[in-house]
Design brief:
The structure holds 2 protein chains of 2 kinds.
Chain A (H helix, E strand, L loop, with lengths): L2 E8 L4 E8 L4 E5 L6 H9 L6 E6 L2 E5 L4 E2 L7 E4 L11 H10 L8 H8 L14 H14 L4 E5 L7 H17 L4 E5 L2 H7 L2 E6 L2 E7 H5 L13 E12 L4 E6 L2 E6 L8 E7 L4 E3 L10 E13 L4 E8 L2 E7 L1 H7 L6 E6 L5 E4 L1
Parallel strand pairs in A: 3-9, 3-10, 7-8, 8-9
Antiparallel strand pairs in A: 1-2, 1-4, 4-5, 5-6, 10-11, 12-13, 12-15, 13-14, 15-21, 16-20, 17-18, 17-20, 18-19
Chain B lengths: L1 H5 L2 H34 L5 H13 L2 H12 L4 H10 L7 H25 L3 H9 L4 H29 L3 H6 L10 H10 L4 H32 L3
Classes of the chains: A alpha+beta, B mainly alpha.
Chain lengths: 359, 233
């Protein structure tokens, strides 16, 4: 584990007590409702906010330890910080914004041309921040943080101020970034699409506590977390492309030993994909039905059942190969099928209901 | 040419002296005013309210009183004046330097007010961003805070310069009215009015005064707007 973090602080009325670890080369999502303490974690990790108690280390280097009185100030932390409101310097050109941190850092592996290319901001270099669109502004802010040669990246809702279209424009850049950098990335969001598309590791925050932590696939498939209560709850599976079947217009994927069919994609065989299967799209059956349009009919085991009394729904956690999947059905269906932990069931989901994104 | 046809050598000397005294007053006063404005805008410390009041005193005190207080402090027997005289051979009383000091003290609050307002308008979030990018305190101040506050600094300096040109009471009290040494424009105008048949001289100098004041105001407006545009506002 490459970034370890622990914080305790009492605000008037609330207390924060949050600890987690963030792996290298992965995006750790801090996910939760507003007031959960997400932004406080980012401020403390950047050194801009000093809590009652903090302990933090990145790649073995201790940046804060209240017990020994150690507190490295922000300007010497090498944190690549991206704010929700970008905070580009209005009196400098885009190029000078990008170089601000670079000029103050020791030479590092992240090159100017590479960042400009990666973020597609070459045409903006001579412009002033005031003339950029929201999406361009955020890409420049990300570039500026990267060029300061950070040891870790902190992104505080970097896409929250953008509309859906701008967001879709910037998400692929972030995915590329993740693949290119070997850094721990802390990413604050309350948007489920960002969580699903960019997250590798998840820390669920609620009222100042970390209520769950783990790989995205494991967390998204849990039926007993606040995440599962959302309408858009659903499991995330990692898969690789096996082959395309042009005649059937279908792509066969391998998801941890299980074959899943999706509508034809353009990803090359061997490419990694990320599949999101919304819980309400999943059908359970005790026997495989015949003559049905559903493409994916797979054997699984029930691991746990959580009743959502408020919405008269049951969240069924299932094991499919070596990954988890979540189904939302009625409590009545659970009763009729006699489901309980350990039951073997057939899991059905339509291939067109699967959201496919680059892994 | 202008001087030959319009102003006599003596009158021209008063104009030149005024410009010089004002330049020194603003030149030496501005860095101190920036420091004071920063303290008042960004720091919380005991005595902050008192400093605020003391700095603003010249704005509300009768200028003659300010001049007399300067005499007490910077006079040859004053606590600061005696030390400067003895150790460095610097004398303020009845010198051009003294006129500049009196002007500087009088316009100091003008500069501090303008700079402080623009410092307070600088988004601390930008300073935080600079900090996270590795900029230390002075680095942040000179690359982010001061450039963003520069319209206020510039306007403060120009207005202070123009005001310095017209400073009368404190200058005549502290530095007296010595032609070529401390007799700036307003002092020369006053002296001309005191002598028989001096109305014409006074009128000419007053016209120059008005032109300079107008030029100052226009310059401050133009420069302020240019800078603001450069800052992307």
């Amino acid at each position: 584990m490459s970034l370890t973090f622990a914080l305790r602080h009492r605000f008037e009325g609330t207390a924060l007590d949050i600890a987690f670890e963030a792996p290298d080369g992965a995006v750790t999502m801090l996910f939760g409702p507003s007031g959960a303490g997400k932004s406080t974690v980012i401020s403390a990790a950047a050194g801009l906010f000093r809590p009652d108690f903090a302990r933090m280390a990145v790649k073995g280097q201790v940046l804060a330890d209240t017990d020994t009185g150690l507190w490295v100030p922000p300007e010497r932390r090498r944190a690549g910080l991206v704010f929700q409101d970008a905070r580009l310097f209005p009196h400098m050109s885009v190029a000078n914004n990008l170089r601000y941190g670079q000029r103050r850092a020791a030479p590092g592996p992240i090159g100017f041309d590479e960042v400009v290319e990666l973020l597609g901001i070459g045409a903006l270099l001579a412009r002033r921040p005031g003339t950029l669109s929201g999406g361009e502004t955020q890409r420049v802010a990300i570039g500026r943080a990267l060029l300061s040669q950070p040891l870790y990246l902190l992104m505080d809702e970097p896409l929250a101020s953008l509309d859906a279209q701008r967001k879709a424009e910037i998400l692929p850049y972030l995915a590329r970034l993740k693949a290119r950098l070997r850094l721990p990335i802390l990413y604050v969001t309350h948007a489920i699409d960002e969580l699903m598309q960019l997250g590798d590791h998840v820390v669920l925050l609620d009222r100042g506590r970390a209520v769950a932590e783990g790989p995205l696939g494991a967390i998204a498939a849990r039926g007993d977390l606040p995440l599962a209560l959302r309408d858009d709850a659903g499991a995330v599976l990692n898969a690789t492309v096996i082959a395309h079947d042009a005649a059937r217009q279908i792509t066969r994927l391998d998801a941890g030993g299980v074959t899943i069919l999706v509508p034809l994609t353009y990803a090359a065989p061997g490419a990694a994909l990320r599949l999101r299967i919304p819980a309400r799209e999943v059908i359970l059956a005790t026997a495989a039905p015949e003559a049905i349009s559903v493409q994916n009919i797979l054997p699984g085991d029930v691991r746990a059942i959580t009743i959502d009394a408020e919405r008269h729904a049951a969240l069924v956690e299932l094991r499919l190969g070596n990954q988890g999947i979540l189904a939302r059905v009625t409590p009545d269906a659970v009763r009729r099928l006699g489901l309980q932990p350990g039951s073997a069931v057939m899991v059905l989901f339509k291939s067109v209901g699967i959201e496919v994104s680059p892994g | 040419m202008f001087q030959a046809t319009f102003l006599s050598p003596d009158e021209w000397q008063a104009v030149r002296l005024s410009l010089l005294v004002a330049a020194r007053a603003v030149g030496f006063g501005l860095p101190l005013a920036i420091a004071a404005a920063w303290l008042l805008a960004r720091r919380r410390f005991p005595g902050r309210a008192l400093l605020d009041v003391v700095l603003h005193m010249p704005l509300v005190l009768p200028p003659v009183v300010t001049g007399w207080l300067l005499l007490l402090v910077f006079g040859v027997r004053g606590p600061v004046g005696a030390v400067l005289q003895e150790w460095f051979g610097i004398r303020f009383v009845f010198t051009t330097g003294g006129a500049a000091l009196a002007c500087g003290v009088m316009v100091f609050p003008i500069m501090v007010r303008s700079i402080r307002l623009s410092l307070e308008a600088v988004d601390p979030g930008l300073e935080q961003a600079a900090r996270s990018l590795g900029a230390g305190r002075l680095d942040r101040f000179f690359t982010i805070t001061l450039p963003l506050a520069s319209p206020g600094v510039l306007v403060g300096a120009v207005v202070a310069y123009a005001t310095s040109l017209g400073e009368f009471g404190a200058v005549i009290t502290f530095a007296a009215s010595i032609p070529g040494e401390t007799q700036t424009l307003p002092l020369a105008i006053y002296a001309a009015l005191q002598s028989p048949g001096g109305e014409e001289v006074a009128a000419r100098l007053s016209l120059v005064s008005m032109l300079l004041a107008m030029a100052g105001l226009i310059a401050s407006d133009v420069a302020g707007r240019r800078l603001a545009a450069r800052l992307g506002r």
